[in-house]
Amino acid sequence: MTIVDGAGPANDLAGLASVTFSGSGFGAHNGKVLHVKIEDPTTKPATIVQTGTATIQQGSFSFQWNGLFKQLVYYGFYYYIDDNGNDSCEAPPTDGVWMLSVLPMSTNTQAMVTPSGGGALAGDFCSKFQ
Q1: What is the spatial distance between Cα 108 and Cα 80, in angstroms, rounded to a whole number?
Q2: Distance between CA 94 and CA 112 in Å, rounded?
Q3: With contact defined as beta carbons under 8 Å apart, do 129 and 87 qualify?
Q4: How far apart (Å, rounded) are the C-alpha atoms in residues 13 and 94?
Q5: From the CB of residue 125, how many other CB atoms can be counted at a distance below 10 Å?
Q6: What is the rounded radius of gyration, in angstroms, for the C-alpha atoms of the chain?
Q7: Mapped to the 3 state alphabet, what secondary structure does the chain carry?
Q8: pLDDT tens, residue by residue, 36-74
């Protein structure tokens, strides 16, 4: 994973960060749907901050969320690619499933991943999508 802080215009919401979550090198999954769920693990139980889907196009995907994240708090980004198209997360190797910890350090943070992980952990995180 590559984290780039301070990219883009400053966020107007004091103390909150914007995050761009993107991936490249996913050409083998073109046309498949990627699902993401973001949790704030500092709350008990963990609070869902955001969810979303994107179709892999030209081996890439990208999400942008503005002003949703507290700075200097680790967030769990859980994501999977629905390779068999059944709209359900299934353990690898049926679906690609990953988890990434993201720490927004400034008002604008970029988290970039690749299929080999890029800092993300591959594993069975499907319970996060049930």
Answers
A1: 24
A2: 23
A3: no
A4: 41
A5: 19
A6: 14
A7: CEEEECCCCCCCCCCEEEEEEEECCCHHHCCCEEEEEEEECCCCCCEEEEEEEEECECCEEEEEEEEEEECCCCEEEEEEECCCCCCCCCCCCCCEEEEEEECCCCCEEEEEECCCCCCCEECCCHHHHC
A8: 999 998 888 889 999 999 999 999 999 999 988 988 889
- Distance CA(130)–CA(114), nearest Å, equals 24
Q: pTM value?
A: 0.84
Task: Please report, for residues 7, 24, 80, 85, the alpha-carbon distance to residue 121 in angstroms, rounded to integers and kept in the order given.
Answer: 25, 16, 12, 22
Residue 28, φ and ψ in degrees, nearest 5? -65, -10
Tokens 């081996």 sit on residue: 59
Q: Where are the domains of the chain?
A: 2-129
Distance from C-alpha of 104 to C-alpha of 91, rounded to nearest angstrom:
29
Residue found under tokens 């969810």: 51
Instruction: Provide CATH code, domain 2-129.
Output: 2.60.40.2190
> 96, 92, 89: which is closest to 116 by C-alpha?
96
